[in-house]
Amino acid sequence: MKDIRTIRKITMRKISVVAFAVLAIVVLAGCSSLQGNVNASATSTIEVSGTAVVKVAPDVASFTVGVTHRAPTSAEAQDVVIEKMGQILTLVKNAGVLEKDIVTTALDMGPEYEWRDNIRVTVGQRASQRISVTYRLAEDSDGLGGLLAALGRIDAIEISSVRFGRDDEEAALSDARAKAMGDALSKASDYAAGAGRSVGRALRISETNSSTNFLRNESLELKTAMPMMASADAYAPVELPTGEIEISATVYVVYVLD
C-alpha cells in the first residue's frame, strides 16, 4: 500500500512539473507576440501627396462638322445632306486628313413636327449627318485655319468643338508621375527633418486620376490654305490660339520614418 501511495505522489509531481513547463512556454510565447505587436505598432510613418504638371505643345486638333436639312420629302432632305457632306469631305481630305481620322458620329432621318392649335402637324422631313475630324498639326501646322475657313464658306453647316490635344500623352504622363513622386519625397523629407528623423522606404503608393487641361498662352495665325482654295476671291483663314496642354499627376505615398 505504501509503495502505491509513493508511486502516485511521484506521478502527480511529474504531471505538475510538465504542466508548469507548458504554461511557462505559453506565457513566454504570448510575451514574444505582444512584444512583436508593440514593435510593429511603434513603426513611425508619414503620408504625403505629390503633384506635378507637365506642359506640352499640342500636335492634333479635333472638331466636328454637321449638316442638317429639312425638305418636303426624305429623299430631298437626304440629297442635300449628301451633297454638302460630299463638299465637306472633299475639303477635309484635300487638307491631308487621313481616312482613319474621319468618323461619322451621327446620322439621322425622320419627320419634323410643329404644334398648331394643340395638334401635332408634320411640316417636313429632316436629315442630318455629323462627322468628327482629327487634324494632325505635326504633319501640317499651317493648314488648319485655312481648312476651317473653307468649310465656313459652305452654307448651312455647323462647325463645333474645336479642341487641341496630344495624340500620345504617355511620355508626358510618365514625366508628370516621376515629378509627382519627387514632390512627395521632398515634402516627406522636409517634415522628417523637422522631427529629427529621416525618410525610409515607401510602404504604399496610390495615384488619383491624371488629368489633361488646355492652357491658352500663345496664339498661332494659320495662314496657309489648301491649293484648291487659292483663287481671286481669297479670304482670311481662321486665327487659332493653339496654347499648351497641361498633363498632371497626383500621388499619395506612405513612407517609413527612420
UniProtKB/TrEMBL annotation:
InterPro entries: 26kDa_periplasmic_antigen, SIMPL/DUF541. PROSITE patterns: PROKAR_LIPOPROTEIN (PS51257). GO terms for biological process: DNA damage response. It comes from the Bacteria. This is DUF541 domain-containing protein.
